[in-house]
Amino acid sequence: MEIDSELAKAILANCSHLKEDRLAHLQEHSIEVQLPFIQYFKPDIKFVPITLSTQTRPVYKDIGLAIAKAIKDAGKQVVIVASGDMNQLRVAKNDPHQG
Predict the structure, then answer these.
(1) Which residue, of 63, 76, 77, 80, has the fewest CB within 10 Å?
(2) What are the residues whose beta carbons fall under 8 Å from the beta carbon of 73, sequence distance 6 or more?
(3) CA 32/CA 35 separation, integer angstroms
(4) Alpha-carbon distances of 32 from 1, 22, 56, rounded to whole Å
(5) Are the C-beta atoms of 28 and 88 separated by less than 8 Å?
(6) How high is the pLDDT of residue 70?
(7) pTM of model > 0.85
């Protein structure tokens, strides 16, 4: 599958919170699970991988607005697929799995 470099560059240009980082995806494997299913239904699809760490709501909002602007400016049909590692959210006081 090919990365949509044009859209990726536009997203980066619209958002100071994001930067190109090829190493960010070395330890992140969730995209590897999703891409085969997407490719099955649309073999010629291009994608833009974005990996985020924990941030504040205003930062997430800015990122979302930057993505929306890049998509609108590109005039392309786009599907956004988001995934999270829910395992990271175990913060309950009495959670026996909390390390």
Answers:
(1) 77
(2) 10
(3) 6
(4) 11, 15, 26
(5) no
(6) 94
(7) no
